[in-house]
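Morning!

This is the sequence you dropped in the shared folder:
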Amino acid sequence: MKTLMAVVIASMLITASAAAQGRPISENTEIATNLKLMERWIEAQRVYRDLPGLSVALVHDQDLIYARGFGFANVEDEVPATAQTMYRVASITKAFTATAVMQLRDQGKLHLDDPIEHHLPWFRIKNRFPNAPAITIRHLLTHTSGLPRESAFPYWTDYKFPSRTEMIKSLEQQETVFPTETRLKYSNLAMALAGEIVTEVSGTPYSEYVARQILDPLGMSSTTVFFQDKDRDRLAVGYGRRLEDGSRKEMPFLNARAIAASANLTSTVEDMARFASLQFREGHVVFGSQILRGSTLKEMHRVHWLNPNWKGGWGLGFSVWRQEEKTVVGHAGWIGGYRSQVSFLPEDKVAVIVLTNADDADAGYFAEKILSMMLPYIRRATAPSMTVSIADPGWVKYTGKFFDPWSYETEILQMNGKLVMYDYSYPPEDDPRRGLVELTPEGSNTFRMTGDNGSGELVIFEMDSANKVVKVKVGENFLYPKKDQ
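The structure's back. Tokens below.
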């Protein structure tokens, strides 16, 4: 049987306030059961795409709702990926660089509209557009500087990154690509220069500044700009894309050196959840983990450059886009062997972090689908009053994992007050809820598949003398329980 099915039975409804009950949102029954469906979907997608591993975190405001790893941090040694596994987060580093710049701006040590030369007198590049406005710090953060994408070295080809001295010297041989403020042009060089401004203005090397002023106050103890060998056992192995024979090459570890402010951070989903929670703080005074004022954070999240298609743009250090009529803020990352995504909804105070260890792992796809899956239930759980479905306690006897003779796996679980049969179909659905089928009771241990997706067939649970399921008849075919459950 290769259909995605679910048994959905209407049950008793009660109205309650999660806040009034004083329970954390992660303990909300509806949230918990939908997280189970989400993680089954993630694992089915990972297996179908043959990805080595990934770790996922889900945040609501200041609470870490969910954090878990899937697959392997090291395939050869079968080291499982966990919430504590370290990954290279690559270009998400740029959001930390922008945070550092905004801290210095709020302290009055720089202005966003300062020309680069005001802080970096050595900045010299051939300007193809002498009548264009001078390149400013704001242009660096919004990727509207017109600068080349990279420093003048083929480091994405040979993985040999320039030193600071080499990057500075090579500027004289480079030239601007577009006039300032005319179009979006993503630039690692631009954000590397923003990191140089942080160093110059603060009087502290970039990596030390980020550690002292951002990572330490946020409690991000598993995050570092320059990776330390003492953490090597925690670092996920980075793998290249899947080749035609199904194999993957292990990618070399990269030190971005002069480009560090654009791409060099290493972190975990738990640590990145702390950075995500920062985005939802609204304090007016910088103190402790409130490392930026709420008004400054909102300024960073606003669109400062709108793409001509009006579907997205850039804030200050963050990308901003529309997803299903919602405004999402975040950043993606790639560096050899790793892809990453942090996405958050400022209005709902919900964030998802996805870190992966494969070049062809679409972290953004996972983040988009997780937000789509979980947001409705988080909204319900945080509403002043909410409707909660309570499952019949007698249904627990039907739950578990079941297989047909050809090893196709189906799991029966309770969620949203319903009994759900989830079939690990291949390829898996983009949204596991799309294949849900309602069942209405028709007698003892007997249900009929109804609703929009129902086939009308009977589902009959055959029980033994101990009232345990020994066989599930679906139409004319059978599923059998997993022996060790």
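Headline: Residues 29-49 form the longest helix (21 residues).

More detail when I'm at my desk.
O.
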